[in-house]
Design brief:
CATH class of the largest domain in chain B: Alpha Beta
Radius of gyration of chain A: 21 Å
Bound molecules: flavin-adenine dinucleotide, adenosine monophosphate
Radius of gyration of chain B: 23 Å
CATH class of chain A: Alpha Beta
Strand order of the largest sheet of chain B: 7-6-5-8-4-1-2-3-9
CATH architecture of the largest domain in chain B: 3-Layer(aba) Sandwich
Largest interface: A-B, 83 and 90 residues
Helix content of chain A: 25-40%
CATH architecture of chain A: 3-Layer(aba) Sandwich
Number of helices of chain A: 7
CATH topology of the largest domain in chain B: Rossmann fold
Strand content of chain A: 25-35%
CATH topology of chain A: Rossmann fold
Strand content of chain B: 25-35%
Number of domains of chain A: 1
Order of helices and strands of chain B: EHEHEHEHEEEEEEEEHEHEHEEH
Number of strands of chain A: 13
Shape of chain A: globular
Shape of chain B: elongated
Oligomer: heterodimer
Strand order of the largest sheet of chain A: 9-8-7-10-6-1-4-5-11
Structural class of chain A: alpha/beta
CATH superfamily of the largest domain in chain B: HUPs
CATH superfamily of chain A: HUPs
Helix content of chain B: 25-40%
Largest sheet of chain A: 9 strands, mixed
Number of helices of chain B: 8
Largest sheet of chain B: 9 strands, mixed
Chain lengths: 257, 324
């Protein structure tokens, strides 16, 4: 079983997000980056499938600037076999069609049986890349997957639907599946894993070497902080003052105590 | 054809967000002076088509095929692709539902046309829409500009448009389209949808809900929240990562894949305020938010907010309430 996992490096979930000077993206130098949340579940699922079947390889693929190398290394430390990074520099592509087309060009000759990706990136949040990639490579696709059952040449997955409904979907391989968070418990890298990751291969591909005929169909031109829609009464002061005011509000304004 | 709104349904009823998509289509149509048409795909959808025909639109298109009886991503994607190729709309609009997430990116890949997903609004510049969406989980907004040619696939987030604002019309005509589908192109087999009966705590009738997010840091700290809930007589809810980490059981989760609640007070502790969480609690009368990040999106919908550390504030608040 050859499994590709798409792993994107994004700001960690409690990073303080600030705008860059021309409001085209965030100010990156003060931000801590991490593996995209649903991608870390996708990686764990890939590692577990490999362990179950007892053969094959898990290849981590990422598009990103030099800092993204760390995310790939982390995935290798957890047990992925090798990595591929498509190098890009700022301004980054924000078009999921372009991004998926770059991945398709980079991995088409690898003939993966399975591509696992996150259901959505925590920065762009397009929720499209894994499905477009699967379609471009002629694979079966399924999204929002919270359980997988592999048997021979096919895979059965449990999909999350809206308002507490679920559905099993079966398909033949090759397949591209997007993983919802909570499907498993992602492992931590062991010390041995971290050591051995240093020796694993990360192939670098220049974005420009792939992007010849790949169009960008959309782009983010301008970003800004959201405007408040509601008048929020902000409570300030020392912790004791805040606590006093909160109890007041609960009693007097909301009248629940 | 100019604007095509695609309705989603479960064979009996049209999805709530599809009417919002119709409202979006009518709005865009008015701004760009374009006509709006509705498409319904399925196997036996004539009743739904009649309902759609009561809206102020040019025409209802019906794409029926036996292979569309149960939803499959391939069946829906191939059908919509054929309709787009034959009818040549400039805009194809849908709600950003789970089903749309599943099949619409395939249409983007097949046609090589852009999919502008999950928008909350748009503005018109030089007769073209610039789409406005949330990025960084709601911490920032982005204006997204088309670069290629039409058609543009466009989806809108829940509640971006109001279904009540859909204009009724004089009765649109209904036209049946012929669709070619074969078994081989449908690579997935769907089993019947089912519900899981794990809802031990019915949060929907709770008056006071204290909801905890990843900001609580670790499982042991949940006790701080439980103590506060006890003195306030509140039920405990949480965000998805808290369930994913095993800190609380799944039935406490509020949001698009959890419960929907409308308490008198929703007290959010260390939750960032991503849309998938907010859709589950928008009906709350009062919202109090504590978060250490002054730009956390949850503050945008808070009545009262404080920027601070829940690990410090919560135990003190419990003591203060206990002390009367
Ligand atoms: C299809 C889909 C469905 C989803 N369904 C749901 C759903 O049903 N419910 C749901 O909740 N999510 C859902 N999500 C996930 C959602 O997008 C967010 O990722 C999630 O809600 C984030 O949870 P959080 O705010 O607890 O965590 P984070 O985003 O990590 O935020 C933690 C917050 O805590 C703050 N914080 C940290 N430490 C402290 C401290 N000591 N004191 C005060 N504040 C602190 C941080 O500033 C931050 O704002 C879904 C996502 C998708 C794509
Ligand atoms: N630049 C990238 N590098 C690696 N994986 C990516 C990248 N962009 C998107 N992906 C994958 O595609 C998923 C969905 O991303 P998106 O379509 O941007 O929401 C992510 O969770 C990743 O698994």
């Amino acid at each position: 079983m050859k499994i590709c996992v798409l792993v994107k490096q994004v700001p960690s979930s409690d990073a303080l997000i600030k705008l860059n000077s021309d409001s085209t993206w965030i100010k990156e130098d003060t931000v801590v980056f991490a593996i995209n949340e649903s991608d870390s579940f996708a990686l764990e699922e890939a590692l577990q499938i490999k362990e179950q079947t007892g053969e094959g390889e898990v290849v981590v693929v990422s598009l990103g600037p030099d800092r993204a190398q760390r995310a790939i290394r982390e995935a290798l430390a957890k047990g992925a076999d090798r990595g591929i990074r498509i190098k890009e520099s700022f301004p980054y592509s924000s078009d999921p069609f372009e991004i998926a087309s770059l991945f398709a060009a980079a991995i088409k000759d690898d003939n993966f049986d399975l591509i696992l990706s996150g259901l959505q990136s925590d920065d762009l949040g397009s929720g499209q890349t894994g499905v477009i990639l699967g379609e471009l490579l002629g694979m079966s696709t399924a999204t929002l997957v919270i359980e997988t059952e592999l048997s021979g040449e096919s895979i059965r997955v449990k999909r999350e639907l809206e308002s507490g409904w679920f559905q099993w979907v079966a398909m033949t391989l090759p397949a591209s599946i997007t993983i919802q968070s909570g499907i498993n418990s992602p492992r931590y890298a062991s010390l041995r894993g971290i050591m051995s990751a240093k020796k694993k291969e990360i192939r670098l591909i220049e974005k420009n070497d792939l992007s010849g005929s790949i169009p960008s169909l959309q782009s983010i031109e301008h970003v800004y902080l959201p405007q408040k829609t509601k008048r929020t009464e902000m409570i300030t002061g020392s912790i004791d003052q805040v606590v006093d005011k909160l109890s007041e509000i609960l009693k007097r304004n909301i009248k629940i105590l | 054809m100019e604007i095509l709104v695609v309705l989603e349904h479960n064979n009996q009823t049209i999805h709530r967000m599809s009417w919002e998509a119709v409202a979006a289509g009518q709005s865009l149509g008015k701004d760009l002076n374009l006509s709006t048409t509705i498409l319904i795909m399925g196997s036996d959808v004539s009743t739904l088509a009649k309902e759609a025909a009561t809206k102020d639109i040019t025409e209802v298109l019906v794409a029926e095929h036996p292979l569309l009886e149960t939803y499959t991503a391939d069946g829906y994607a191939r059908t919509l692709t054929q309709v787009i190729e034959s009818e040549q709309p400039a805009y194809v609009i849908m709600g950003h539902t789970y089903m749309v997430r599943d099949f619409l990116p395939k249409v983007c890949a097949i046609l090589k046309q852009p999919l502008f997903g999950d928008n909350i609004s748009y503005r018109i510049e030089n007769s073209t829409p610039i789409f406005i969406k949330q990025i960084f989980q709601g911490k920032l907004m982005a204006e997204v500009s088309p670069q290629g040619n039409q058609p543009y696939l466009v989806t809108f987030q829940s509640a971006a448009f109001q279904s009540e604002s859909v204009h009724r019309g004089a009765g649109a005509t209904i036209r049946n389209l012929s669709i070619t589908l074969s078994d081989e192109i449908i690579k997935t087999r769907s089993e019947d949808p089912f519900q899981e009966t794990t809802i031990d705590v019915d949060l929907s009738s709770a008056d006071i809900i204290i909801s905890v997010g990843r900001g609580i840091g670790k499982k042991e700290n949940i006790n701080l929240v439980k103590e506060l809930a006890e003195v306030m007589g509140a039920q405990i809810a949480c965000s998805r990562p808290v369930v994913d980490a095993g800190w609380l059981p799944p039935y406490h989760q509020v949001g698009s894949s959890g419960q929907t609640v409308s308490p008198k007070l929703y007290f959010a502790l260390g939750i960032s305020g991503a849309i998938q969480h907010l859709v589950g609690m928008k009906g709350a009368n009062n919202v109090i938010v504590i978060n250490k990040d002054p730009n956390a999106p949850f503050f945008e919908i808070a009545d009262y907010g404080t920027v601070g550390n829940i690990l410090e504030i919560v135990p003190k608040l419990t003591e203060a309430i206990k002390g009367g």
